[in-house]
């Protein structure tokens, strides 16, 4: 008997028929004697609709009220799935995040899980019930409902699995695993049987939305046995996300990802004195803005330099406000921003020992007539900021996928 955490995404529970299919899959596991905790998303389109509704009554709603609204989507799914299980004779109980004891910080709309109370979990599992928990939500110490950010149900599932030391965490979605690129963009991507936590973390953070980046972060820290598989073809093996050990060899490039939810900010003529960059990024951090790809130019006239960086698109105006508020005190020059950009990245654990990978990426983009605006590298990734217009981004993804022969992986 194993303790298994499963998560079903929005498309997987998108219709009542799909919910019945999910119930059948859960029943298959309980019949084998396994204990199950199942996290679910809102039905596909529900969260988007709720956001649209909010916008119709207020173009700048508070985070608290947004969370109150958005958390309702998942609540519909948990009740319907528990009813569907009851109908086929599987004892189950639905619980909201707060009922489940998922304590978060108070960063509304992007809260982080602090702890999970086990008392209710133990009680329900000991009573022989499948626990159906609402993904993406929790409760703060101030007793307020919070949500974890778009796509956050994956993180709910992995955090529960880590906290109760589950034997396995399965993420059921509308693809049968992790591919070398988004199958909606590339015609011939290869399915990866295994991928390391590090590579998956980069891919997810750089735009491959198949897993929420923070779910991979939690899985890596706590060594959670994690798999991504199809809710439509449940018999198919998915992709296992694993530690480095046991993998025979690292691929030079494992995948390509793109992220259109990005914007760039440039600060000109920043005085070249110690502590200025620290202060700018400290303030942005305090304002809860996630900064990425920081680039500082060489000093001009021994006095000033320019700093540019990227932020998520929806944080852009907030970030610019924070920087504007520092302008007088710090004496830097003009602040410019652009949101018509995208980030395109290649990821691979073998990159570190293969010279020429970045050069090949730049050549490929230039052959497509795509201009590179910013570059950042780490041991296992190279990212470029490019313009997001027409089919520029998809063209970049497909040409890089071809250039690195990713259609041939495992074939
Ligand atoms: P869910 O609603 O189940 O959470 P998501 O839409 O969040 O599903 O994530 C699944 C989607 O992720 C797929 O439909 C696919 O288009 C996209 N995706 C992006 N990059 C990849 C990749 N490298 N491998 C697999 N899927 C990917
Ligand atoms: N329902 C939320 C969203 O659409 C959370 C999730 O699906 O993971 O982002
Ligand atoms: Mg998702």
Which kinds of small molecule does this entry bind, naming each only once? adenosine-5'-diphosphate, aspartic acid, magnesium ion
Instruction: Indicate the overall shape.
Output: globular
- Determine the fraction of residues in helical runs and give it as a percent range: 25-40%
CATH superfamily of the largest domain: Acetylglutamate kinase-like
Question: What is the number of beta strands?
Answer: 18
What is the CATH topology of the largest domain?
Answer: Carbamate kinase
Our Rg estimate from Cα atoms comes to 22 Å
What does this structure look like?
This protein has helices at residues 16-31, 46-57, 63-87, 97-100, 119-126, 153-164, 197-205, 213-222, 276-286, 316-324, 327-330, 357-367, 392-403, and strands spanning 3-8, 35-40, 92-95, 102-104, 113-116, 130-134, 137-140, 145-147, 168-173, 194-196, 226-230, 239-242, 255-271, 292-296, 304-312, 335-347, 374-378, 381-387. The protein has 411 residues and is of the alpha/beta class. The protein has two domains: 3-174, Acetylglutamate kinase-like (Carbamate kinase, 3-Layer(aba) Sandwich), CATH 3.40.1160.10; 256-408, 2-Layer Sandwich (VC0802-like), CATH 3.30.2130.10. The strands form three sheets. It has an eight-stranded mixed β-sheet, sandwiched between helices. It is globular and about 75 Å long. The two termini are 36 Å apart. Residues 9, 151, 154, 209 line the site of magnesium ion (MG).
Question: Which properties best describe this structure?
Answer:
6-stranded antiparallel β-sheet, alpha/beta, 13 helices, Carbamate kinase, binds magnesium ion, 411 residues
């Amino acid at each position: 008997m194993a303790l298994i955490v499963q998560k079903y995404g929005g498309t997987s529970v998108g219709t009542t028929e799909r919910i019945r299919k999910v119930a059948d899959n859960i029943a298959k596991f309980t019949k084998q004697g396994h204990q199950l905790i199942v996290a679910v998303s809102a039905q596909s389109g529900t969260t988007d609709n709720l956001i649209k509704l909010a916008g119709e009554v207020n173009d700048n709603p508070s985070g608290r009220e947004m969370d109150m609204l958005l958390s309702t989507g998942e609540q519909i799914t948990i009740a319907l799935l528990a009813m569907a299980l009851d109908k086929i004779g599987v004892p189950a109980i639905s619980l909201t995040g707060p009922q489940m004891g998922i304590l978060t910080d108070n960063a509304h709309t992007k809260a982080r899980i602090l702890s999970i109370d086990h008392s209710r979990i133990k009680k329900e599992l000991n009573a022989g019930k499948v626990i159906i928990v609402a993904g993406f939500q929790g409760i703060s110490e101030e007793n307020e409902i919070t949500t974890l950010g778009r796509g956050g149900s994956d993180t709910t599932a992995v955090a529960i699995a880590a906290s109760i030391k589950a034997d396995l965490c399965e993420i059921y979605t509308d693809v049968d695993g992790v591919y070398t690129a988004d199958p909606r963009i590339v015609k011939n991507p290869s399915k990866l049987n295994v991928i390391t936590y590090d590579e998956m973390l980069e891919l997810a953070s750089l735009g491959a939305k198949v897993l929420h980046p923070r779910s991979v972060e939690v899985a890596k820290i706590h060594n959670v046995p994690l798999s991504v598989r199809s809710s439509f073809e449940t018999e198919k093996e998915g992709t296992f996300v694993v530690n480095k050990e046991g993998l025979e060899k690292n691929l030079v490039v494992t995948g390509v990802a793109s992220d259109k939810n990005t914007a760039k900010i440039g600060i000109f003529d920043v005085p070249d004195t110690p502590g200025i960059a620290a202060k700018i990024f400290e303030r942005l951090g305090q304002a809860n803005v996630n900064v990425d790809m920081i680039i500082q130019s060489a000093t001009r006239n021994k006095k000033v330099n320019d700093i540019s960086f990227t932020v998520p698109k929806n944080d852009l105006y907030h970030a610019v406000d924070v920087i504007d508020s520092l302008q007088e005190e710090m004496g830097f020059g003009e602040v410019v921003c652009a949101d018509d950009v995208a980030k395109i990245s290649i990821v691979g654990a073998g990159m570190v020992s293969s010279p020429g990978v970045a050069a090949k990426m730049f050549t490929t983009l230039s052959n497509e007539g795509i201009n590179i605006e910013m570059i950042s590298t780490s041991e296992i990734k190279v990212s470029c900021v490019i313009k997001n217009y027409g089919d520029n981004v998809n063209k970049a993804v497909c040409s890089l996928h071809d250039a690195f022969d990713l259609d041939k992986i495992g074939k």
